[in-house]
Amino acid sequence: MSERNKAVKERYSKSLLLFGTALAGLLFDTSAGAASPSATGTSTKKRSSHAVAAHTTSSSVSARKDHTSPRKKRSTGPLLSKDSEEVNVSTRRVASHGAEVTVSRKVMDRFVEGSNPMQILAQTTPGANFASTDAFGLDTYGNTFYVRGFTQMQIGATLDGIPMGTQGFANYNGVSITQAMIQDDIASMSMSQGAGALDSFSAQNLGGAMTYVTSDPKDKAGGKISQTFGSYNAFRTYGRVDSGILNSTGTKFYASFARTKTDMWKGQGYQSELQADAKLVQPLGDRGKISAFFGYGNFAQGNYLAMTKNMWEKMGRNSTYLKPDYEKAKQWAYYAQYTSDVPPGYEGVLSNDEIGNYAWDASQLQRTYVSSVNMHYDLFKNVQSDTVAYGNVNSGLYGGTNNFITSPSYGVPSLNADGSVSGVPMALSMAHAAMRRLGFTQKFTIEAPHHNKIETGLWYENNQWVYNQRLYEDGLTSGHNWLSDFKDGTGHTWFENTFNTNTFQFFLQDRWTIIPGMTLLAGFKSLTQT
Questions:
Q1: 433 and 396 Cβ atoms separated by less than 8 Å
Q2: Residue 381 confidence (pLDDT) above 80
C-alpha cells in the first residue's frame, strides 16, 4: 500500500511541475507581447512596413491575462528594438571581359610581402597553379605557372601597357615581373583565362594574358618602411617615399627600394635581390596625365638541382648539387663522362644519366633596367588615347658545372685505385645573355552609339638578343666561383648567337553591351615579325 501511495505521489509531483512550467511560460510570453506595443507607441505605425508583430493587440493581451479565451498563435515576425538601427549596403561593379579575374592591392597585402605576383594569382584565380623552389617565388629557373594547361611561356604579360614577353627563365623578349618592379608597388593585376585578350600586346598570348598596373604616387607626402624575417636567415627590407602633390598642376612622384636575401634551404649558396622603383605623374588638367616609370633589378642565386622522380625517391628531397665535396664531384663527373657505370654503392639506385645530373653547382645572375613614358589623354568626350614609349635592357649569366666537358689543362682524367680521379673531368659552362628592347604602343578607345565600345591599337618593337656560351676551366683541387666576373676573353667561346627582331602588331575590337551584364566582344589581331 505504501508503494502505491508513493507512485501516486510521484505522478502528482510530475503533473504539478509540468503545470507550473507551462503557467510560467505563458505569463512570460504575455508580458513580452504586452511590452512591445506599449513601449513603441506611435512609432509602431511608422515601422509597420517592416514585418512587425502587428497581430499582437491590446485586447489579445488582456485576454491572455484573464485566461478566458484560447491562446492565440504567437507572431513569427521580428521584435522591435527601442534603439534605432541602421544598415549600410554598398556595391562596386568591376568591368571585365571574358573569364577575367582582377586582384586588388588589398588582396595582395594578405600575402607575404615580396611574394611573386604569379604566386598570388595562383592562389586567387581558378584554374591557375604556381610552383617554385623558393618561398618568395623569385627563382625564374625553378618556378612554373600554369593556367588551364598553358605555361607562362604561352601567356602574354604587360606592365602599364609595356609588353613583358615570356615570364620564364632566360626571357629573350622581355623581363620577369619579379625583376621589373617591386611587388609592393603594384596597384592591381588581372588574369584573362581564355584566349589572350585582343587588346593585350604580346607575341605569345595563346593561353591568356596577365596585366599589371603600377600604383600612382600618393597625394599626401609620406613614407613606408617594412621588414620581414624568415627561416634560413631570410630577410626583406622595403622602403618607399611619396612626395605628395608638389604644385598647383598636381605633379607628384615616389621612389622605393627593396632588398631580399635568404640562404638556400638545401645545399650551399643563397638567393639575393636588390630592387629600386620610381614613378612621376603629371596631370594634364582634367583631360589626362603623363607618367614616367623606372625599374631596376639585380638578382643573384645559386640554383637547385633538377631531379627525376627516381632521384627524389631514392636520394630524398634534400638531395642537391655536390658542393662542397669537390672530390666527389670529380668522381661522379668521371663516371658520367667516361663510363656507363655508377660510383660504388649506387648500383641499382641511380642510373648513369642521373649520376651525370649531380654536378658541382649551378647559378644565375641577372640585371634589369625598365623605363617607360605613358600618356593618357581624352581627345574628345568619347575618344581616349593611350600612348606608351618604353625601353628595356637586360643582362644575365646562366650556367653551372658541365659533367661532360673536360678541363684540358690537367690532361686526360683517369680513375685511381683509391677511387679518386686525376685530372678534371668537368668544366664551367656559362651563358652570357644580353637584350635591348625599344618600342611603343598606341591605343584608341571610342565610345560609339548603341552601347558599342570600339578599341584599336598598334605595337612596334625592336629587340636585339645576344646569347653567347663560354667554357671556363675548373681547378685541380677547387671549383670555380659562381659570383666571378666572367668577362670576354677569360674563357673559351663555345658558340655565339645574335638576333635582331622587329615586331608589328595591330588589333581592332568592338565590345557591344547587349543588356546590362551581357556583352558581346568581336575583333581580330595581326602579328608580323621580321
A1: yes
A2: yes
Residue 409 pLDDT greater than 60, yes or no: yes
Residue 336, burial from CB neighbour count under 10 angstroms (0-12, 13-18, 19+): buried
Query: Which CATH architecture group holds 215-529?
Result: Beta Barrel (2.40)
Q: Does residue 226 carry a pLDDT above 50?
A: yes
Question: How many angstroms separate the CA atoms of 189 and 208, rounded?
Answer: 13
**Grid cell in block for residue 190:** 588581372
Beta strands 209-214 and 156-159, pairing class: parallel
Maximum distance among all Cα pairs of the chain, rounded to whole angstroms: 121
Identity of the residue numbered 226:
S
Measured CA to CA, the distance from residue 267 to residue 264 in angstroms comes to 7
- CA 155/CA 501 separation, integer angstroms: 20
Q: Give the separation between CA 436 and CA 270, rounded to whole angstroms.
A: 28
- Please tell me the pTM assigned to this model: 0.77
SS3 at position 108: helix
Paired strand residues for 432 = 397, 468
CA distance 294 to 320: 37
Q: Name the residue type at position 340.
A: S
SS3 41: coil
Reported for 407-412, long-range contacts at CB under 8 A and 24+ positions apart, including other chains, are: 407/473, 407/474, 408/473, 409/473, 410/476
Under a CB-based contact definition with an 8 Å cutoff, are residues 463 and 503 in contact? yes
Which of the residue ranges 72-86, 279-293, 356-370 would you say has the lowest mean pLDDT? 72-86
Q: How far is residue 176's CA from residue 143's CA, in Å, rounded to a whole number?
A: 11
SS3 state of residue 509: strand
Specify which residues 31 forms β-bridges with.
Answer: none
The 8-class DSSP code of residue 172 comes to: S
Res. 420: pLDDT tops 80: yes
Angle between helices 2-40 and 58-66 (to 10 degrees): 160
**Strand 150-151 relative to strand 144-147: parallel, antiparallel, unpaired?**
antiparallel
CATH number among 3.30.428.10, 2.170.130.10, 3.40.640.10, 3.20.20.150, domain 100-212: 2.170.130.10
Burial readout 298-324 (b: 16 or more C-beta within 10 A, e: otherwise) = ebbbbbbbebeeebeeebeeeebbbbe
Please give the pLDDT value at position 51: 40
Q: Check residue 83 and give its pLDDT.
A: 63
* Non-local CB neighbours of 284 within 8 Å, separated by 6+ positions: 290, 375, 377
Q: Which residues contact 43 (CB under 8 A, 6 or more apart)?
A: none
